[in-house]
């Protein structure tokens, strides 16, 4: 078990190095703008731009720049400084991470609480009216773009601009430590909007896995032993059906912790996704590199956790 975990950790580190190299190479070989010119401002002279290039080390060869970049990350977790506000990228990501965690954790709880029970109910009553309604609704939820669904939610339910004015609208987010009530009100709409497509996908996947699992021999054996149907479904069928969903859930959580760009932009939540969007708009290369590497870290970490859980649940995977 230890050797398996060590191998997965080393592979995760190698993937992070590959992602950092590709990201750095893309911005070095195909820059969208001159970082020195961005740092110098509109009234920059060629002499000032050359001086800034020397200060930032941009006049050095590619391999020297990349080595300095990697060394700063490994030794000091230094992601560089923003060209727009001359602030450490690490500091900006850290200040925005609580908002992203709040959004991701709440949306995950919503889509698990809605998606899996819906899939189970549809699986035990296939081809009924309830099954058709739930799967039809899931198809609509998957097809609805997040930005459109967010604007509809703001139009209907947001305070100040919506028809019903039940919850906080765009730009109303405050940290949990400042005002718990306002924090909850500002995140209800983003939670449900972000969770809609995920819940629909999980409902359809749970239904398909449950129907397949219900036809297995061990389910028929459990029923033949006289076990209650509720126990057969929840303790045997559902447990087997949730194994593939574990992989998807881990990757989805990692992806959201890297930044839910569309949702944070629509609801003006100051999270990592919104920071990545602003960095792209302003061609802030260190910030873009930092958010890409940060998102890759969470995805790789989530994948590592899922692999370890699989190894715990199924010893065959270790080999």
Shape: globular
Report the uncertain regions: none
* CATH superfamily descriptor of the domain at 96-279: MetI-like
Radius of gyration: 24 Å
Q: Please tell me the CATH architecture of the domain at 96-279 by its name.
A: Orthogonal Bundle
User: Please, how many helices?
Assistant: 13
* CATH topology term of the domain at 96-279: MetI-like fold
User: Please, what is the average pLDDT?
Assistant: 83
Number of strands: 0
The run of helices and strands is HHHHHHHHHHHHH
How much β-strand is present in the residues? under 5%
CATH class category name of the domain at 96-279: Mainly Alpha
- Helix/strand/pairing category: mainly alpha
State the end-to-end distance: 9 Å
Helix content class: over 70%
Sheet with most strands: none
Molecular structure report:
The chain is mainly α and 319 residues long. The protein has a domain at 96-279: MetI-like fold (Orthogonal Bundle), CATH 1.10.3720. The protein has 13 helices and no strands. The chain has helices at 2-29, 35-40, 46-56, 62-76, 89-124, 129-143, 146-157, 180-214, 217-224, 229-257, 261-266, 272-281, 285-313. α5 runs antiparallel to α10 (229-257), α6 (129-143) crosses α8 (180-214) and α12 runs antiparallel to α13 (285-313). It starts with a helix and ends in a 6-residue tail after the last helix. The model has no long low-confidence stretch (mean pLDDT 83).
